[in-house]
Amino acid sequence: MIRFKKAAALAVSAAMLFSAVGCSSSSSGSSSSSSSSASSGSKSSTSTPGSDSSGSDEKGLTYASIKLGEDYKDLKESIKFLHHKTDRASDGTMDKLVAEFNKMYPDIKVEMEAITDYAEDSKLRLTTKDWGDVMFIPSIDKAELSTYFIPFGTTEEMSQYINFANNWELDGQCYGIAYMGNAQGILINSKVFKDAGVTEMPRTPDEFINALKAIKEKTDAIPLYTNYAAGWTMGAWDAYLGAITTGDTTWINQKFVHTKEPFKNNGDGTGAYALYKILYDAVANKLIEEDYSTTDWESCKAKINNGEIGCMVLGSWAVAQMKAAGSHPDDISYIPFPISVNGKQYATAGPDYCYGISKTTSESKQKAAMVFVKWMVENSGWCELEGGYPISKTAFTTFSFNGVEVVENDPALAGEEDFMNNMNSESELAFNAGGDKKIQDIITNAFNDTKSFDDIMAEWTSKWNDAQEELDIKVLY
Known about the structure:
By secondary structure, the protein is an alpha+beta fold. Helix content is 35%, strand content 13%.
């Protein structure tokens, strides 16, 4: 049965994390305090879905207003859900989830479509306004949210029930709910590290590079698998910008766009410079696969499970897939990223793709979609199945990451919500927005010794400064 009991969810989360190299897991829980049951939330007010208002319909349709298993039991409707989880479509998981949903709501039928190139195709489908009823919100400007989607409720209200309620916020309204969260660290085969004599997890870039060298010298494993050929996996490196590399939860979304030299060498192993130099140094020292151009995403899962790979830089979402890829799930562990700020390591958590409900679909379908999304978040167990950081604040009581505090990067300042998107577009660096090529370029230049790391960072700085000038964004730091 797909729906998880609380104990099962705790077990999955515990299996994702570990407290020592020779130990594959540790206890887990949630950083968020428990809130009142979602079924007891207050109703928001007043306007018609599909209108220009950002409020709810006259009947008070909000996430909080719905009591699962009680409300809308007599609703007969069919809805369509667009998503990117082609793997879960092919292995039958999505069908099982809907089958479980239909045990509670047998008359709400859910058609699903899994899209392979979701990042691009979903944006094209969105503009047609005829894509369906529920989708994972693609990379759009926040100013466009009310054009395409209805809100789930106010951000203040939704913060009582879910983590990351402000991720897709516009005018105080929450337009998106993540299906799972990601903690940011490094995926490792703990047995490979142990066999290499690495008994304490690296806390600095130098310690990490030394650990990779030990793996190369003492084992047959590939120390760091880049996943270069997949492309999208390269963008994973951007996710460590922010509190992990600076110790400042305001940096990535509030200060980055206003910083004159965000890629300068701080000289202490912190900041964006230190983050990307880890990759450059690993490649330059040939601590990666022999031919980075022939990496394969699907086969790497079994390879790290079987001890042929030492580690990969991916979000915590990947843990469940790697554990399931072979007969050594206990060897798969997840550790904090090897950067320390004033002696302290930070881990961040943030949302994955977020559910959005169509503004242009019928009121009846919007009700069915709201019920479906709430069930998926609170009852399906999908987040736990994927090994994700919890979305529902009732999912866990504590969350541990090897003794490292998990923090959330603060949102952009009011009035500056689209600054980062605009800077990404103008500079063409696309941080956390599909900027795979710039990371691939680090690998090709390091491997072939065609451009120094400092030269790469100087080029990024020039592009960043030009974008600031073109967009008239003030340099404050």
